[in-house]
């Protein structure tokens, strides 16, 4: 049985001081390269470039995907040879192959391949490896697994072309350590991707489906803050009441995490029930929501705008709204005029359910766009919110005649720069 190589730190003490220092530097640089981001594939490509400059003539990175193997990258220190490298892609699975790569992925541990093996037409993976070694001019290859929790996630292959330059025990130990660190980085990135996907699906499940309001021109979007999970407390809603009017709502629950998203879901469901059953005007619904929120939930502070839209067949569309400490809705007309609907403002929910709240009414001009949004669209750290509202009005005026989907997307592109906060928008276009 092959003897396990000593740890690189222990082996390095037996080397010349300058050689030991160089190998420890390589470990440190590799750790930085692997920890420099959550894009595991790019981190592994950086590792390959780093290894090629210090340890091998070429480096190959293979990752296990499903029943097969994907060749992520092949890096060579010879630029001309790099132009002739095989394209990356999927390789046959390792289950029945006799190739050294397959044995490593099945758990054999680090393996050294001396000379170019003969291809076997019945073994597709072995044939692929033979073609790789021929293209790289390999005389010696060292294959180490990227293994985490006894599972091989892939392998690193270090290639040397000089016949008299085999990998000694210390270099094999160093390569094995690099494989272990690469495996940890790949595993962490996959776990993060899974968490991100789960959070994204949760957020989508908490936001409303607007297909039931197909008779209205509505456009909505939720964009999570970039430095946090893809979930947060910003929310929007739109639903029809028994009398045929439509409720439009937007709000922000304190927090930018999974707990905030759960509280947001509770709040949205309570708002739907109260609005649908009570028959109150927006201010009355907001007072009820404030009272129920403080009595039955752990939600602390919430900003929100609640709008009721009526669409009579023989007159202008009208809105009635109230505002609980939220940025004011924006009305943009086709001629470029814009107006912030600053009336009806009262304190945030969660302070005192007995506070007075007012409902304000307005007729909507034909072709106008009503925009509800959260503060992440207009606020920037260290800047007065007035400047953000001015930017919003300027861009909305320039886009007011565009189709509603273009209006929404362009507005987000122009106003979201270095995004530190979640953003939710809900836009309505009057026919």
Helix/strand layout:
Elements: H1 8-12, H2 17-34, H3 40-54, E1 58-65, E2 68-76, H4 79-83, E3 90-91, H5 100-108, E4 111-114, H6 124-136, E5 140-148, E6 151-160, H7 169-206, E7 217-223, E8 234-240, E9 246-253, H8 258-278, H9 282-296, E10 302-310, E11 317-324, E12 330-332, E13 338-340, E14 345-346, E15 360-364, E16 369-373, H10 385-399, H11 404-415, E17 423-429
Parallel strand pairs: 11-14
Antiparallel strand pairs: 1-2, 1-6, 2-3, 4-5, 5-6, 7-17, 8-9, 9-10, 10-11, 11-15, 12-13, 12-16, 16-17
Helix pairs in contact: 2-3, 2-7, 3-7, 7-8, 8-9, 10-11
Mind describing the biggest β-sheet? 6 strands, antiparallel
Low-confidence stretches: 8-13
**Level-1 CATH class name of the largest domain:** Alpha Beta
Instruction: Identify the strand order in the major beta sheet.
Output: 3-2-1-6-5-4
Distance between the termini: 79 Å
The total strand number stands at: 17
CATH architecture of the largest domain: 4-Layer Sandwich
Order of helices and strands: HHHEEHEHEHEEHEEEHHEEEEEEEHHE
What is the mean predicted local confidence, pLDDT?
A: 86
The name of the CATH topology of the largest domain is Phosphatase 2c, domain 1
Tell the overall outline.
elongated
């Amino acid at each position: 049985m092959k003897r396990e190589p000593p740890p690189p730190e222990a082996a390095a003490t037996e080397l010349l001081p300058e050689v030991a220092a160089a190998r420890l530097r390589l470990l440190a640089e590799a750790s930085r390269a692997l920890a420099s981001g959550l894009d595991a594939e790019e981190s592994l490509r950086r590792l390959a470039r780093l290894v090629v400059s210090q340890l091998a003539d070429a480096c190959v990175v293979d990752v296990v995907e499903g029943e097969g193997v994907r060749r992520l990258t092949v890096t060579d220190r010879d630029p001309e040879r790099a132009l002739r490298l095989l394209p990356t892609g999927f390789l046959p699975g390792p289950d029945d192959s006799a190739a050294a790569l397959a044995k490593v992925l099945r758990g054999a541990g680090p393996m050294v391949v001396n000379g170019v093996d003969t291809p076997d037409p019945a073994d597709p993976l072995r044939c692929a490896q033979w073609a790789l070694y021929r293209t790289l001019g390999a005389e010696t290859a060292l294959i180490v697994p990227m293994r985490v929790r006894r599972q091989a996630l892939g392998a690193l292959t270090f290639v040397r072309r000089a016949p008299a330059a085999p990998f000694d025990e210390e270099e094999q130990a160093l390569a094995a350590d690099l494989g272990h660190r690469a495996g940890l980085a790949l595993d962490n990135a996959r776990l993060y991707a899974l968490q991100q996907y789960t959070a994204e699906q949760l957020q989508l499940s908490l936001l409303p489906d607007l297909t039931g309001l197909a008779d209205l021109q509505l456009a909505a979007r939720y964009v999570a803050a970039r430095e946090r999970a893809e979930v947060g407390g910003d929310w929007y809603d739109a639903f029809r009441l028994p009398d045929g009017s439509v409720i439009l709502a937007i709000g922000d629950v304190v927090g930018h995490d999974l707990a905030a998203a759960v509280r947001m879901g509770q709040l949205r469901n309570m708002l739907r029930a109260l609005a649908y059953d009570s028959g109150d005007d927006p201010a009355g619904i907001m007072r009820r929501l404030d009272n129920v929120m403080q009595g039955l939930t752990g939600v602390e502070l919430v900003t929100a705008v609640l709008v009721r839209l009526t669409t009579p067949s023989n007159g202008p569309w009208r809105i009635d709204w109230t505002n609980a400490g939220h940025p004011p809705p924006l009305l943009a007309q086709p001629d470029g005029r814009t107006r912030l609907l600053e009336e009806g403002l009262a304190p945030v929910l969660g302070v005192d359910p007995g506070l007075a709240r007012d409902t304000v009414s307005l007729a909507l001009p034909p072709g106008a766009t009503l925009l509800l949004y959260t503060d992440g669209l207009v606020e920037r750290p260290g800047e007065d919110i007035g400047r953000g509202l001015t930017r919003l009005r300027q861009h909305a005026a320039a886009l007011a005649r565009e189709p509603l989907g273009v209006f929404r997307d362009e507005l987000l592109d122009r106003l979201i720069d270095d995004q530190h906060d979640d953003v939710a928008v809900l836009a309505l276009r009057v026919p």
